[in-house]
Amino acid sequence: MYGYSFNNILPTTSYEVSVIFDIEGFGDEIQVSTWLPISNERQEITNEIQETGVFGVTQLNDATGRRVSWTAQAVTGKKLIRYSFEARGKAIQFDIDPEMVVPRDLPPSVYQYLNSTAAIQSNHPQILDKADELTGSEERFLPILTSIFTEINGMESRPFKGLTDALTTLKLGEASCNGKSRLFVALCRNKGIPARLVGGLIMDQGSKKTTHQWAEVYMGGFWVPFDCLNGHFASIPANYLELYKEDNFLFSRTANIEFDHLFIIQPKLVSNPKLASELKSSAFNTYLMWTAFEKAGIPLSLLKVILLMPLGAMVVAIARNVIGLKTFGVFLPALIAVAVGYTGLLWGMLAFVLVIVIVSLMHYPLERLGMLYTPKMVIMLVTVVIAFILLSIIGIKMNYTELAYITLFPVVVITITAERFARTVMEEGYEDAIKITIQTLVVVLGAYVAMNSTTMEAIFLAFPELFLTIIAAMLLLGRWIGLRVTEYRRFKWLVR
Amino acid sequence: MMKWFKKRKEIDQVALGINERNLKLVYPLNPRKYFHLADDKVLTKAILEEQKVSVAEQFMVIESVGDITEKWAATPRKSCVIKPSKGSGGGGILIVDYDEENGWTKGGKPISEDTIERHIANIIFGVFSFGADDKVLIEEKIIHHKTVTNLCHLGIADVRVIVKEGEIVMAMLRLPTKSSDGKANLHQGAVGVGVDIETGILKKVFDLQSYAEIHPDSGQQITGVQLPDWPKVLDTCLKVDAAFPLNYLGIDIAFDQHKGPMVLEINVRPGLEIQNVNQDGLRRTII
Question: Do B189 and B77 fall within a single domain?
């Protein structure tokens, strides 16, 4: 309808993943091997960094994936290997044609995925009986896979440590991810369906040691994923990171070491990398506007601010006219929210409060000096600027560089804020000024959240026509005669 | 929960909020192009004097910083009120007294001419009128009617009357307190007293927290007191309403011992606290 897909416009989640290996050697040559993730259609790996220290690196790509070995001679004491990357995954879901039949002929390379192995005992009589019991003489993929999947998915899940083979899983009727996946693969292979294990990581925020295994079935030229433990049928979610194929352990190592590992995963929302190219191909074209601005040398961040400013202003309008909050100025909270966008929330809020504190401290002494209004304002502004610069320098000297961000708080906004605050103090006193300050801060926070949401940004960039809905909402608000939320409290006296 | 909803609904029915006041009263009844007639007190006074409405005697108007010294020197050495012509909410009003012996005083304490002149300059710079340049209005200090001074000794007490399209809608007396620094603004600590508009008899005293029958500072009985010259107050309000092409007004009137009710200023966006003071909603006026 719009000429682009919504999924390519909305921001996606990207994960910063670190794997940390703690290795202690005792004087011998040591080696640790594992698999590193590969970018493919459903996962994208970027910003890979290997910090290996004394270890030499060898890499080798084969059918199982990208194998890496870290080797070092005569290692004594604790060593650290750190491997980090950014991963962006995509959820995948296959639709299976209900009439598709399990084929007799397969590509030669796939036949190996029908073999019975030590841990996937697909030819064992008990596996055979189970396969017959579940699927009978059925020959179509969908009913076979549904029966097997439902059976295994219904089994008790247990956090078993280590390897559970297919037969044990069948006998116990319960298992962890690898046992369930092996039984699934064994039953599939028994029915003549090529299947294999996949190993990887479920990317959730936090740190963990646990890895995950699921299964893949070869069907119509595709390897289709199944996760019997977490109930994903012909699908896997976006936070599944694939590391290797087939029945392997993720880590292997020489026996002469102490070894430990830890995954640290940090998700973050990032704008969709396909955003620009998606918009380019749409009929109603904001992308043209972007390129025009870019050619003129105007930073895109400025365009974003301009495009999202109405959203911030709408937040202010709702806060004032519906909730009944008082703020310094009509658009000042939205402007401060933009400023806070540059400095970050913490430093922005701190800068705002700092301005207020400085102005309050200076107000009375300057008032006593008997100064005219405008020169007094200039003195206050200069003091604020000096304080900001001092703070930045102190921050840098003390190696606390974030403190320097405070200088990004735009001076114009400082001026207006300080001036409005000082005026409110003069007209209505400190108490009211501080109350309005707090309410302004609340509205700033609201505007900041609305304007800094990557989702809002993407939606407004993709559908600039949404500005019309802001106008529509404001037309309604402009004719709305209801009491403001705070007025219910104010007029409580009218009802006994 | 049900009780809460019921209470909200009841408030909805009686209370006039800012949104509704603006949309149903201020915008349709007070054309914006005439706002300046009410917002500029010098202009307001000129119109009222022409209509023979009683106002405080004007001593001086100062419009530019360069004129301050000269014009202040030419201002009569008499107790006076110095205020911004376009101020709002009672901000920037300075009341000074003069006598031969002590010179200029403010609330009994000496005040230097420098301080006064600086205040005048601040007014012209627009400190009290949202940044726009302003004029300074210097006028006679009203000698309060003894009925009013009996109620309160500090500052200027005045009565606020709401008039809508030739009809008196609601009224309250505003009494300064110690904590309001002599100002008659409810949000600066003054108290409001409901007024029966038929008779001019005072109702309860409201200080934004609770209702009472006495003045919070002096303990003087207030409820039940009859305001002086009440028929003349009502008559004055109707005259003011007729004099302006504005039809929803808050008219502030002071009681002078000798000259009777006197119009201080008129307001095109009269505040809503008067509803709490009278324990009566303004919504009924628009239904």
Answer: no
A312 to chain B, minimum CA–CA distance in Å?
Answer: 21
Q: What is each CA distance from B157 to B137, B151, B153, B205, in whole angstroms?
A: 19, 9, 9, 14
Based on the domain organization, do B177 and B237 belong to the same domain?
yes
- Give me the domain span that covers residue A211: 92-237
Using only the alpha carbons of chain A, give its radius of gyration: 31
Give the CATH number, domain containing residue A21.
Answer: 2.60.40
Q: Is residue A180, in this structure, part of any structural domain at all?
A: yes
**Of residues A190, A227, A34, A181, the one with CA closest to residue A113:** A190
Tokens of B94: 């300075």
Please write the tens of the pLDDT for every residue from B203-248: 999 999 999 999 888 888 999 999 999 999 999 999 999 999 999 9
Report the SS3 class of residue A132.
Answer: helix
In-domain check, residue A245: no
| Per-residue tokens: A174 | 């319960």
Distance, in Å, from the CA atom of B4 to the CA atom of A488, rounded to the nearest integer, reads 11
Q: Quick one: residue A494, left, alpha or beta (phi over 0 = left, psi -120 to 50 = alpha)?
A: alpha
B265 and B146 fall within a common domain: yes
Query: How would you label A397-413 residue by residue, b for 16+ Cβ within 10 Å and e otherwise?
Result: eeeeeebbbbbbbbeeb
Q: In the numeric block, which tokens belong to residue A350?
A: 């701190």
Q: What is the largest CA-CA distance in chain B?
A: 67
Cβ contact, residue pair B12, A483, below 8 Å: yes
Q: What pLDDT digit, counting tens, does each position of B56-87 carry?
A: 999 999 999 899 999 999 999 999 999 999 87
Same domain, A232 and A290: no
Q: What is the ipTM metric for this complex?
A: 0.84
Nearest to B11 among A324, A372, A488 (CB): A488
Check: CB of residue B239 under 8 Å from CB of residue B54. no
Q: Of the given ranges (A338-352, A441-455, B98-112, B225-239), which has the lowest mean pLDDT?
A: A338-352
Interface test with A, best of B19, B117, B285 (most A CBs within 10 A): B19
Q: Of B141, B169, B191, which closes a domain?
A: B141
Q: Which domain holds residue B79?
A: 59-141
Q: For testing the chain A interface, which of B10, B13, B18 should be mutated: the one with the most A CBs within 10 Å? A: B18
CB burial readout B95-111, b (16+ within 10 A) else e: bbbeeeeeebeeeeeeb
Q: Is A482 on the interface with B (CB under 8 A)?
A: yes
We report the CATH number of the domain holding residue B81 as 3.30.1490.20
B16 and B85 inside one domain: no
What is the domain-level CATH number for residue B238?
3.30.470.20
* B193 touches B204 (CB < 8 A): yes
Domain final residue, candidates B141, B175, B191: B141
Domain count, chain B: 2
